[in-house]
Amino acid sequence: MEEKEIGKVSHYYGHLNVGIIELSDTLKVGDTIHIKGHSEDFTQTVESMQIEHANITEAKAKDVIGMKVAQKVHPNDKVFKVVP
Predict the structure, then answer these.
(1) pLDDT tens digits for 42-67?
(2) What is the pLDDT of residue 1?
(3) Measured distance CA(77)–CA(55) in Å, rounded
(4) Which among 29, 19, 33 has a CA at the least distance from the CA of 73?
């Protein structure tokens, strides 16, 4: 499977399991993403995203989104979109 870098993690809220991601490309609910960092390397499906606490189904480059993550993430972890 091919992957395309679409952003990076800027913050993580551990009590919510939410990662804040600065996007450099589009992302939609239902897309599969791969988060890779110093101690993380996992794949998950995007189930929901928010901008300023409002639910959205699609985000574009330069958006800063919050989303539930399957594992702990750290600032500067890279986010890739898995392209089937």
Answers:
(1) 999 999 999 999 999 999 999 999 99
(2) 81
(3) 23
(4) 19
The answer to whether 24 touches 6, Cβ cutoff 8 Å, is yes
**Rounded to an integer, what distance in angstroms lies between the CA atom of residue 37 and that of residue 40?**
5
Question: Cα torsion at 51, 68, 84, 64 (round to 10°)?
Answer: 30
- Class of domain 2-83 (CATH, top level): mainly beta
Amino acid at 30: G
Say what the pLDDT of residue 84 is: 82
If you search the block for the tokens 């993403």, which residue do you land on? 33
Dihedral angle, C-alpha 73, 74, 76, 77, nearest 10 °: -30
How many Cβ atoms from other residues are within 10 Å of residue 56's Cβ? 15
Q: Where are the domains of the chain?
A: 2-83
